Amino acid sequence: MQKSFLKTAALLGALSVMLGAFAAHGLKKIFDTDLLQVFETAVRYQFFHVFALLAAGILYKDFTNKLIRWAGYFFITGIILFCGSLYLLCYVKQQALPFNWIGAITPFGGAAFIAGWLCLFAGLNKAN
After folding, report:
1. Coil/strand/helix, residue 67
2. Closest residue by Cα to residue 20 from 72, 87, 71
3. From CA 67, how far away is CA 73, in angstroms rounded?
4. Residue 57 in contact with residue 72, Cβ under 8 Å?
5. On the CB side of 112, how many CA atoms lie within 13 Å of its CA?
6. Which DSSP letter does residue 126 get?
7. DSSP code of 98?
8. For 26-70, what is each residue's pLDDT tens digit?
9. Nearest by Cα to 68 from 117, 12, 3
10. pTM above 0.70, yes or no
11. What is the secondary structure of 13-52 as a DSSP string?
């Protein structure tokens, strides 16, 4: 399990850097300031939670319990729902598509991030 979290974190970390560079060099020309800020928030939260996923993967070796495993799953889910919905929302707004409801997904990703941190905490307190 820990290796899959570490590998996923590595790929999501690389994606974070690529998306950040894309925002800094490509999107500045086409996104307004508000949309660029939303996109950069998604990149920032993705990158922060890559480190959380790395921590879950590393800690799972010494704290082999389902709460640490769930923390990793919640961090991945949060990245997909929170960051992914913000990336999609930026695209939808830029293209003036009628899918603004995508923003309603974002809080579920935020809840997954919170659940991940709470599971990490509880998993570290649980005796093996």
Report:
1. helix
2. 87
3. 10
4. yes
5. 23
6. S
7. S
8. 888 888 899 999 999 999 999 999 999 999 999 998 888 999 999
9. 117
10. yes
11. HHHHHHHHHHHHHTGGGTS-HHHHHHHHHHHHHHHHHHHH
